[in-house]
Amino acid sequence: xxxxxxxxxxxxxxxxxxxxxxxxxxxxxxxxxxxxxxxxxxxxxxxxxxxxxxxxxxxxxxxxxxxxxxxxxxxxxxxxxxxxxxxxxxxxxxxxxxxxxxxxxxxxxxxxxxxxxxxxxxxxxxxxxxxxxxxxxxxxxxxxxxxxxxxxxxxxxxxxxxxxxxxxxxxxxxxxxxxxxxxxxxxxxxxxxxxxxxxxxxxxxxxxxxxxxxxxxxxxxxxxxxxxxxxxxxxxxxxxxxxxxxxxxxxxxxxxxxxxxxxxxxxxxxxxxxxxxxxxxxxxxxxxxxxxxxxxxxxxxxxxxxxxxxxxxxxxxxxxxxxxxxxxxxxxxxxxxxxxxxxxxxxxxxxxxxxxxxxxxxxxxxxxxxxxxxxxxxxxxxxxxxxxxxxxxxxxxx
Length: 398
Prior knowledge:
Elements: E1 13-14, E2 17-18, H1 27-42, H2 44-58, E3 64-66, H3 68-74, E4 77-82, H4 92-105, E5 110-115, H5 119-131, E6 134-140, H6 141-146, H7 148-156, E7 160-164, H8 171-184, E8 189-192, H9 202-210, H10 212-225, E9 232-236, H11 241-247, E10 257-265, H12 276-279, E11 281-285, E12 288-292, H13 317-325, E13 328-334, H14 335-349, H15 355-361, E14 374-379, H16 387-395
Helix pairs in contact: 2-4, 4-5, 4-9, 5-7, 9-11, 10-11, 14-15
C-alpha cells in the first residue's frame, strides 16, 4: 500500500515504478540488504555514528544562503542550499557515509561503485579510505576524460578506477560494469549506488540518507523567515539523488511546489538529450522500473548531456511517480542554458556551481514566482571539476 510520496510499498514500488528486477545470482545480496537496512538505520548506535560523521566529517549542516543579487534579478527570494560546501564538494557524501556504515554492519570488506561526474566516486573513495576498505569505482571512459580532476582525487584516496568502454562510455555503461562485478563477487562485496536508482531497497535507502538536505532546509527556513515551508524547491535530476533529498520532507506538503530539471543537452528534438520524462516511457533498467529513453524496438537510447552527472537515460522510480501523478513539475535545460546559469551565478554571487547544479539554476528563467515567494535551489556540487568545460565556453565567448 502506498504510504506517501516519500516511501515505496513493501515490494519497493512508488505507484507503478520501482521493484527489484535482478539476476538470480544477485538475489541473496539484495534480499540481505532489504531484510536488514531499515533495522540497521534505525539502530541508535548507527544513528549516533552517522550523525557524528555528517557533522564533524562531512561538515553539516550546510548553509542555506539567501542570494541577494540573484533574488533581485528574478524578483523573488532565492535561497541556495549549499551542498557544494560538503566535504568532497557535493551532496554525494551524505549517502556514502550512510551506506559504508550499512556495509560494515553486514560484514562486507570490498566496496564497488559507479560514477558519472566523479562526485559519487570521490565520496565513495573517501569513506572507503576512512574505513580502510578496498574500493573499486567504475567510470565511463568518456567521463574519465572530461572529469580528470575527480579521477585523480579517487586515485589519491586509494581507489581503483576502472574504465567502462562499452556503449556511450558514460554513467549507464559504468553502472552496467559495476553490476557485472557484483554478480561475479556476490559474497564479500557491497555495491554503493550513488543515486535513487537500482533495485529495491536502493532508491528508498539513498533517498533516506539524502533527506538530511530537506530536513535542514525546513529548520533553516524557520529560523530565517518564520516558516518551514517555501513556495518551491528546485533541483536537477539525472538519476535524481540530490533532488530526492531536496524534495523528501516537502513531498507530502501540497503547498510546496516540486520542480525537477532534466538535461535537455542540445535540445529535446536533436537526439542529443537526457530528458527522460520528455523522451522516455516506462521500462526497466539497472534493476527497477522507471521512465527510460528507448529506441523504437525497446533498446536503451544513448543519452547526451554536457554534464556527466546528468548523462543518464532514465530517472529514479520516485521521480517517475512524481512525474506521472503530477506532484512534481519536470522541466529541462539545454547545455547552453546551464552554462548561462552557471556564469550568471558566478558573476552575481561569486559561486561557481557544478554543471549539474547549473541546470537547476536555469529553472529560474522558466518559472515565474511572486516577489514575496521563497524559493530554494539545491546547489548540489561545486564547479571545480567542470573548469575545463567552463574554460572552453569562455574561449567560445561565454
